[in-house]
Each structure stands twice: as C-alpha cells, then as structure tokens.
TrEMBL record:
The keyword Membrane is annotated on this UniProt entry: yes
Keyword Transmembrane: yes
Domain of life (superkingdom): Bacteria
Protein name (Swiss-Prot/TrEMBL): Uncharacterized protein
Keywords: Membrane, Transmembrane, Transmembrane helix
Source organism of the structure: Blastococcus mobilis
Membrane spanning residue stretches: 21-40, 60-79, 91-112, 124-144, 151-169, 216-233, 245-264, 270-286, 293-313, 319-338
Length: 365
C-alpha cells in the first residue's frame, strides 16, 4: 500500500497518461465497488419485506462498503488525473456528490416518516440519480482511454450491467410486493409481525404497504427507463447483441440472488422476464437501422403482449393495460431523441477525450 501511494498518489490533471495495465486495475476496482453496491442493494430490498429498517443492517453495510470504495476512486481520479478526462471526472464528482447528499436526506426522511419502505421516495430517487451519474462518468472514462478489443468490451458491458440494474432497481418493490401480498392473503406471510404492526400503526393496509404505487408505474418504468438504457448501451458499445447480453445477465443475476436469499429465509420476488423480449428486439432494430419512433411502438407492443402471458402465470406485478399506448409513445419519442443526438455534432465532439496533460510523470521505483 505504501508503494502504491508513493507511486500513484501524485498530483496531476485529467487526461494524464495512463498505461493499459494501470487502466485495467483502476476500472477493475470500479467494477468491484459497484458489485458490492449491487449485492447490498439486492439484499436490502428483500430485507425490507421481512424486517424493520435499520441503518446498520447487513445489506446497508455491504452497500456502504461499495460506496466507500467509490468515494476513494473519485478522490484518486480527482487528485491524480489518471484514467479520466475532464467530463468523465465531473460526472463522477457530481454523481458521488448527489449520492452523499441523498444519504442523510434519506435517514432524515425515515426519522420523520417512519418506515417509508417504498423505493419511489424522493430521497431514494436522488440515490439512484447519483449512482447513474457516477456510472456514466466511469463508462465514459473507460471507453475513451481503453484500447479497442475484448477487454474494453467486457468491462464496458460490466459497467452497463450495473447501470441497468440501478435503473431497474425501483421496480423491485412491486416485484417483491406482489408475492409478499399473495403470501399474506394466503395466511403465510413472509414479513415479521413487528414489520406488519409498524405498517398498521402508520395506517397502511397490506396492499398499500406492499404495492404502494399505481399499476402503470412498473411497465412504464421498465419500458421507458429500462429499455431506453438498453438502447443507449447498444449504440455505445456497438456489439450486435449488447442489449440481449445485458438483459440476460441481469435476469440471471436476479435468479441467482433469488435462490440465495430464499435459501437463507428471505422473501422471494418475481423476475421481469419480459425484459429479454424487448432486449432482443432492440438489438435487431438497431442492427437493421429501424427508426426509433417506429421501433419504440413495435417493441412496446411486443413487451406488453409477453407480459400478458407472464401475468397469467402470476409471476408479474399488476400491469395497467391501458398504459400501453402512452408508454409506447413515450419510448418512441425518447428513442427518436437518442437517434437525433447520435447524429449531432455535439455528440461527435463529446466523444473525443481531453488531450493528455503536460504533467511530468514521476519516476517510479
């Protein structure tokens, strides 16, 4: 550690010359940090459907370990200038700043409003936003400075996987809630009595407690936020099956976590399997250069059709089928905006990294 500190913690500007080996170590640390955060967050959702909230609960501690590593990485980039340009560094700094502001706000929110189990609260939204911004900085830094090839593609897919998981994270409330409510109504609740008693003391019915948002929220967010993230990832990474790989990996991760959490006694969730339908069609549409305004309408219709089958099996949160048209229009418009930006001069300029600074690189032992 002393050697690493003396060798690399030297002041420099963004764009500082970084070797391929150094770059791989730096961004492997980013992957490790977000893996800790993702594992902690996944456990946290299941935890909240069983136990009362606790600031020092194991899932929070695991997530916090990842956050500490992210803070250390942002400090490292800010001080040394390795592995980032100015735009990537600013995204990292603004992202971690928003996240750290959201943490005390969330704690205060829980102190004032009690349980606040919903994933859709304003303080939670700020946590997701901060995470998305810092991930955007990491994605940019790696993509600009890593040499083209298999390693760059794999690390990029890893970072985009964490981005997708962060975007879809709020929907897990309904995906846990639908099974928890069903178990409660069947007389075999998965929640501890103290949790249900606390919810009742706040005037919440089991349905309000477990499915607190309207039925159009889950499909609208999955399509207009989740599928849109896959569209952008497909265009940035450029691999033919980028969206399919990300969606399949995300669902596989959720399935493994499902097995692990249920094995140790935590509540289960349903999986948004319909995501893979949209992902495959996104890859086909981008490969065949289908305009976003048309692809968005068709893909939304296909996802809603697949959802009918999944909901018939009782493994999908309630969907408001009347939301299909406005959601389809929403994805079509958002995809059209992405297509317009992809052809813009602004994007072409932003894809160029800042020139490496003229800092003198210290001689290392």
């Amino acid at each position: 550690m002393r050697w690493l500190w003396l060798a690399y913690m030297t002041p420099g500007r963004p764009g500082r010359v970084t070797t391929a080996t150094e770059l791989r170590w730096i961004y492997t640390a980013w992957l490790g940090a977000f893996l800790l955060k993702m594992l902690g967050s996944s456990w946290d959702v299941s935890w909240h459907f069983m136990w009362l909230r606790d600031d020092l609960a194991p899932p929070h501690l695991l997530n916090s370990a990842g956050t500490v590593l992210v803070v250390a990485l942002v400090v490292f980039h800010s001080y040394s200038g390795y592995g980032v340009d100015r735009r990537a560094l600013r995204l990292m700094q603004w992202g971690i700043g928003a996240f750290l502001v959201a943490v005390p706000l969330d704690i205060i929110n829980h102190r004032i409003n009690g349980l606040d189990i919903t994933s859709w609260s304003p303080s939670h939204a700020l946590l997701y936003l901060g995470t998305a911004i810092m991930l955007a900085g990491a994605i940019r830094g790696w993509w600009l400075y890593a040499a083209p090839g298999r390693v760059r593609d794999l690390v990029s897919l890893g970072l985009w996987l964490f981005f997708l998981e962060n975007v879809l994270f709020p929907n897990q409330h309904q995906e846990y809630g639908v099974l928890s409510l069903s178990a409660y109504e069947a007389g075999r609740t998965t929640a501890e009595p103290q949790l249900l008693d606390f919810a009742a003391s706040q005037g919440q019915s089991p349905a309000m407690f477990m499915l607190p948002v309207p039925s159009w929220v889950h499909p609208a967010w999955l399509v207009c936020a989740g599928l849109l993230s896959l569209v952008i990832a497909r265009k940035v990474v450029g691999l033919r099956w980028t969206a399919t790989i990300l969606a399949a990996t995300y669902l596989a991760y959720r399935a493994v976590m499902w097995l692990g959490l249920v094995a140790i006694g935590f509540p289960p969730s349903v999986l948004p399997v319909v995501l893979i339908v949209g992902a495959v069609l996104i890859d086909v549409a981008v490969t065949r250069r289908v305009p976003g305004w048309a692809a968005g309408m068709v893909i939304t219709a296909a996802v809603y059709a697949a959802a009918v089958a999944q909901q018939a099996l009782g493994v999908l949160p309630p969907w408001n089928w009347w939301s299909a048209l406005p959601v389809a229009v929403g994805l079509a418009l958002l995809w059209a905006v992405v297509d317009t930006l992809a052809r813009s001069r602004w994007l072409a300029r932003s894809q160029t990294a800042d020139e490496p600074s003229a800092d003198v690189v210290a001689v290392r032992d």
